[in-house]
Amino acid sequence: MGEGASGRNSGFAIDLPHNVGSSLEELDGSHRFMRLARAGIAHLQTQVETHGIDCDWKRSGKYHAAASQKGTREVLEPFAKEMDALGEPYHWVVKEDLAKKLGTAHFDAAVFTPGCILMNPAALTRGLARALPENVTLYEHSPVTSVTYQNGVTLDTVAGQVYAPQMILAVNGFAPHFGFFQQSLLTMAAHASLTRPLTDAEHSAIGEIEDFGLTPANAFAGITMRYTQDRRVLIRQNIHFSPGMRVSDAHREKRRREHQRLFKARFPALPHVDIEHTWTGFICLANNGSPGFGRVSATVHTAVCQNAVGVTKGTIGGLLAADMASGIDNDMIADMESLGQPDKLPPRPLLDMGVRAKFAWELFKSRHEA
Question: CB under 8 Å, gap of 24 or more: what pairs does 76-81 form?
Answer without folding.
Answer: 76/109, 76/110, 76/111, 76/217, 79/111, 80/111, 81/22
